[in-house]
From TrEMBL:
InterPro entries: Bact_Sigma-Reg, PPM-type-like_dom_sf, PPM-type_phosphatase-like_dom. The chain crosses the membrane at residues 24-45. SMART domains: PP2C_SIG. Coiled coil: none annotated. This is Membrane protein. Keywords: Hydrolase, Membrane, Transmembrane, Transmembrane helix. Residues 75-329 form the PPM-type phosphatase domain. GO terms for molecular function: phosphatase activity.
Amino acid sequence: MPTAWGAVAVTYKLACPLAQQNGLGARIATCAVFLAVGTGLMLHVRRGLLRELRQIRRVAGAAQGVLLRPLPPRIDGLDIAATQLSADRGASVGGDLYEVIGTEHGVRVVMGDVRGHGLAAIGTVAAVLGSFREVVHDEPELPGVLRKLERAMGRHLAERAKAEHSSSGLDTDNPVAEEFVTVLLLEIGRDGEVRALNCGHPWPYLLRADGGPADAHGGPAEVRGRVEYLGFGEPLPPLGLFPLPAELPVVHCGRLLPGEALFLHTDGVEDARDSEGRFFPLATALTDAIRPGPSPTSPKAVLAALLRQLLAHAEGFPSDDVAVLMLHNDRDEAPKPHDDRMAHQFK
């Protein structure tokens, strides 16, 4: 098509008598012809680029559906909502990962954050998520799941090192040797008991309602606060930096009661800054996003309200990848009356 347009322009110049005249009218006509030729060529190129862009977006959407597939709205009595933003404009997948899977061992959750951001971290995201989805049904205990994730991460780094360098194995000067991923593993039993293993990732927040089930376990919910950061001491090292210790003690976090919710996030949320360099006040934003009443707002509504505040704070897209995940306990069963009062507390 560009050749055809060029041939039209050359033919006009050589064969058309009007193009060989020097008058003002002839020059205006010649300019109009060449303008039309150039416009037609640009429109043709634009249509081709748009077709290619649509095809790339379809391929990227299919890849995203496999890599970071949409979560079901409900798993085993838990209402679920999640979303993520890539730091690379136009990219729909970045260096953050999450997955929620119902198993015979309970609902198992992973939230992770690969060092770096954007498209460069997708390979590590695929390695960790692929391993999690495979082993989460087979391993009866969380330490076994984490061991398999560590081995998958090690294989991924070794393969990348071999592909990028002539020598096999990891080299201390190799950037791959510095790649790591923070991981938070959760297991929520049918009775609401929450168990966790944390490899360098931010701990979640517990979202309580005003009044509601928490009042049956030691006084008004507002005394403990509607939004509580669940910090459980020093986490394990991120996967890829150092070998995991021989013992992997599971943290018993207590019960997630009906009407309560867990909010998981990556550090890109709290690290988002405004024009004056102030960090995003996540706890305050969560408090504002929760609807007062007997139960929190639906997970989708809470995340939508939170992201609006985050984007307004960062004045656009944040500089790092962002992922958020919320699990709301919508089960009918409450803990048995003889359960210890502190079983509810996230120690």
